[in-house]
Amino acid sequence: MPSAPEPPLAYRVIRGALRLVLLVFFRRIEVTGVEHVPASGGGILVSWHPNGLVDPALILGRCPRQVVFGARHGLFAWPGLGWLLRRVGTVPIYRAVDAAADEAARREANARSLDALASRVAQGSFSSLFPEGESHDAPHPVELKTGAARLFFRALELQPPGAPPPVIVPVGLHYDAKDVFRSSALVAFHPPLELPPALVARPPSPDQPADEPAEAARERGRALTAEVERVLHEVVLATEDWPLHRMLHRGRSLMRAERAARAGRAPGPADMLELSLGFARARQAYLERRRTDPERVAELRRRVEWYDEDLRSLGLEDPELDRAPRLLSRWLGAIILLQFLLVFLLLPPILVVGVVVNLPAAALLWAIARLAARKRKDEATVKILVGALLFPLTWLAAGVLAALGHQALHARFPSVPDQPLLAGLLVATLAAAGGAVAVRYRRVSRETLRALRVRLTRRSRDVAVERLRRERAVLHDAIDELAQGLALPGVIASDGRVKPEPSPPSPSG
Length: 509
Hints:
The protein is α/β, with parallel strands linked by helices. It is 55% helix and 8% strand. α4 (103-122) packs across α5 (147-158).
């Protein structure tokens, strides 16, 4: 079967612009599993929905195939967003819960929406759905609707004879801090669902569906929805609640730090893939041993939570227990001098321009996000959509005002070079660069202050730190013993990091 055709120019341009906006909003975006998306044929991407419009933006920007989305019809009324949705081929979805003047008209519109999406899938395109229906803040998928199942079965009905059935590809979306600017994200495409023959049985023809009782059809829909829900819970590494989620992350972190310490290495920061794999190992071990040894697991969980509380009370993270920065060292003076030159002499001119120009826009964006976002998880969506327009307009306005001001200055003082365009471009560039410096400067300042606080107060807390270091070692051994005999995802490298399992060699010949 030939590969899918190249997406149209408008789609590629908008996808490129969207990728640029996402790269500005996120510090790092990692993508895994693109090989699981077939190069040809139709299919449906299914994912959970934790972060508003950021979720479809990440899928659209990173999927190797053109994606046809279905979106709640009310989103098409948003200024700018409606135009964007139409240009990328999004199909409006009229849900049964949406208000409408006439029930029959609403259901008829919903059927037309379903047919529009299903026909594209039947013709070999890819669609993407979020079966939960609405975005949410839970650490697990909420109850799934049957829309993905109905789309799949309708696409089967509309397919030409002999065509392979559409695939259903689950997608994991992971954020380290989903509502924070310059955080990280992971988009993980997983292998297509392996469905039993009963769920992929094709009707005799598109116009004459199989003579199937209504209750049997609903049962098929419920069965497929239950399978999608089961897989999504595994794909997104779902947990029952946020306390358990945080406890598992602490377990992941302490295991990583202790392995690195025993290997005599500095662990360094974890990327999103390693973070996800480490969390998956902690989650799987916890769930499996909770079934076989619940009392032991409950006791170990309490100890991890106590360790976490003590660590937080000191304002430290696991790897910092192994650092012993001296109050004075031969390099400290040189480091402080270099930091002083960079932070207080070189960056301030750029930083001042960035703050003066961007601070009003940032304050306005914060206010708009708080007012326009119905829930906290919608703030990232609003920030991306509004910020992508607000900040470039702010930089453009600053450049225009600088050019006009330069013209006025030249008219008053002819000795000033008549270069308004250069002045405008310089100010606009400094405004954009200064905004980026300001964002990074804030992060560096926080990290520097935290490091200094650790350095200056470590000696007064040596006893507590040493106790926590011993407790971390004990917890590591207890968790490692508990996980013995389990087939956990990923492999532990010699430096203590969790890495993906090596792919099996391709068969020769």
